[in-house]
Amino acid sequence: MKIRLMQLDDYEKIYELWMSCVGMGLNNLDDSKEGIEKFLQRNPDTCFVAEVEESIVGVIMTGSDGRRGYIYHTAVNPQYRKQGIAKSLVDTAMTALQRIGINKVALVVFDRNEIGNGFWESLGFTVRDDLIYRDKALTEIVRIDT
Ligand SMILES: CC(C)(COP(=O)(O)OP(=O)(O)OC[C@H]1O[C@@H](n2cnc3c(N)ncnc32)[C@H](O)[C@@H]1OP(=O)(O)O)[C@@H](O)C(=O)NCCC(=O)NCCS
Hints:
GNAT family N-acetyltransferase, 146 residues, binds coenzyme A, single chain, 7 strands, Aminopeptidase, alpha+beta
């Protein structure tokens, strides 16, 4: 297994991977090729894929606003799970974020996603029960939840 920086050319394969995973929260704008291109342009050194024999089996997108690091869309092909691939992707991305001066990272995960929550818990990502997550769409967005 090899981890390398994610490229825009990987988009179609990665999108297929996301759609094959239960628990992803995608949408028609941020997860379009144009949306991902925008994210990669802003965060060129902190998004990674895992490859086995030239084929993409895992992905993590992380980025920052210069203060907090954010993690998005971590996924591993079901056939390659429980081999430490997602953990390696997280470790690689955390090192990359630290390198650009980020001290703390955050992510959101569906409450119903037991595997996802078990995974983040095992890596020491604690639940903030003193906070309420709020957001507001600035553009009409269509959710694509898997
Ligand atoms: C969550 C996910 C990325 C984990 O990928 P993975 O490569 O299987 O994870 P790892 O092998 O690196 O697991 C690391 C640790 O996480 C925990 N973990 C992983 N999968 C787990 C599961 N199914 N049940 C319980 N704990 C789990 C374990 O503690 C594991 O360490 P261990 O194998 O030494 O016990 C993968 O299951 C996935 O793609 N799920 C669908 C998408 C998703 O939910 N993404 C996260 C939400 S944003």
